[in-house]
Design brief:
Layout lengths: L12 H4 L2 H6 L20 H6 L5 H4 L3 H15 L4 E2 L6 H5 L4 E4 L3 E4 L21 H14 L4 E6 L1 H10 L7 H9 L1 H24 L4 E6 L7 H7 L1 H10 L7 E5 L6 H6 L4 E3 L6 H8 L4 E3 L11 H14 L6 E2 L12 H15 L2
Parallel strand pairs: 1-4, 4-5, 5-6, 6-7, 7-8, 8-9
Antiparallel strand pairs: 2-3
Length: about 350
């Protein structure tokens, strides 16, 4: 009997036993699992071919295209998990925010949020508005079999930064001005975004995603005290809202070395680490109750085979004592990365860590 649209397909038994999910649960693994942030797209010629003439937001709304792009790196590299092809602004567009993803720039918001009345433009996300996400996840789970699928969303702070700034920002001055100067408005904005994000993640997990990652791309711009007071409550709300789904929750940000323990305390099962903090030191900061993910510098992939091998070995050595380690880059795959180098990394990690 086919599943009703609201029912979750059970993860394949082999997917539940995968090295990736076992590492997330801090269980023994046959080898250290590997996947790459932004592996779905960017550096792959087959990705560029299927995206010809198709805008980013349109690409994120076509289930068959989402499925093909998500599967491409799994076929090419043999990674231990797939990452759902989408963008962090997809749920914002789904609730009616007028935005576009401008090539070479990033998300651009037509009417930035500046006052209380602007919150009316952010209704709660109706799962039906992202039915294409549900459909794509179900297609992917059927195709992936034993390979887990990771769903993801942008964290409230990062989404708020785009909405307040109107686009990417180096200094986040408008964001911090609202956060510090109008704390009630800021708290209401992040609370609304937490609700939207939780629904978006739930749609993916209920359709069959085996893990969920919350990206806080801009959280590294914050001092720890500001994070605790003005950002952590919203991230914690998202992670708590999806706790009942029974899938590992990964929390990642860039430049967040000083926030690692706090990001774990927000409710993550796995804390992502960028390349600025050695894995052993990250483990000391986060504590023993959470797995870690990371953390090869994406730029190292341009340095030649010997340098890449040495850097991979350094990450593995630093992470050797961890109860749960998922090998990844310390940020996303850069667009000009040689796919052959990524394949080399996967093979080296698997070979070096076989139990």
């Amino acid at each position: 009997m086919p599943l009703a649209s609201h029912e979750s397909p059970p993860p394949a038994a082999d997917a539940r036993a995968s090295a990736f999910l076992r590492a997330c649960r801090r269980e023994p693994v046959p080898h250290t699992p590997v996947w790459f942030m932004r592996q779905a797209g960017r550096s792959l010629p087959e990705y560029r071919k299927v995206r010809e003439g198709v805008g980013m937001l349109e690409s994120c709304s076509r289930p068959e295209l989402i499925t093909e792009i998500t599967l491409q790196p799994v076929r090419r590299y043999g990674v231990d998990a797939a990452i759902f092809f989408s963008d962090i602004v997809v749920p914002l567009r789904a609730v009616g925010v007028d935005l576009d993803i401008v090539p070479g720039v990033g998300p651009v918001i037509a009417a930035p949020i500046a006052d209380w009345a602007d919150l009316d433009r952010l209704p709660l996300l109706d799962p039906g508005a992202v039915s294409y996400v549900d459909e794509a996840v179900r297609l992917l789970v059927a195709e992936l079999g034993a390979t887990p699928l990771i769903g993801f969303a942008g964290a409230p702070f990062t989404l708020a930064s785009y909405l307040v700034e109107g686009g990417p920002s180096k200094n986040h001055e408008r964001t911090k001005a609202m956060m510090l100067g109008r704390p009630d408005l800021w708290a209401a904005l992040l609370d609304r975004l937490a609700d939207i994000t939780a629904v978006f993640l739930r749609v993916q997990a209920e359709a069959g995603a085996s893990a969920l990652q919350l990206f806080d791309s801009w959280a590294g711009a914050l001092a720890p005290a500001d994070y605790v007071r003005s950002v952590m409550p919203a991230s914690a709300k998202v992670l708590a809202a999806i706790a009942d789904l029974g899938v590992p929750r990964i929390h990642f940000g860039v430049g967040t070395g000083e926030l690692l323990s706090l990001m774990g305390e927000a409710g993550a099962d796995v804390v992502g680490v960028d390349w600025r903090v050695p894995m052993a030191e990250a483990a000391r900061r986060v504590g023993p109750d959470r797995a870690l993910q990371g953390n090869l510098d994406p730029a190292v992939l341009f340095a030649g085979p010997e340098a890449v091998d040495a850097a991979v070995d350094d990450v593995l050595a630093s992470a050797a004592a961890l109860p749960g380690h998922v090998f990844n880059l310390g940020h996303g795959v850069l667009p000009d990365t040689d796919p052959g180098t990524l394949a080399r990394v996967v093979d080296r990690v698997h070979a070096a860590t076989v139990r």
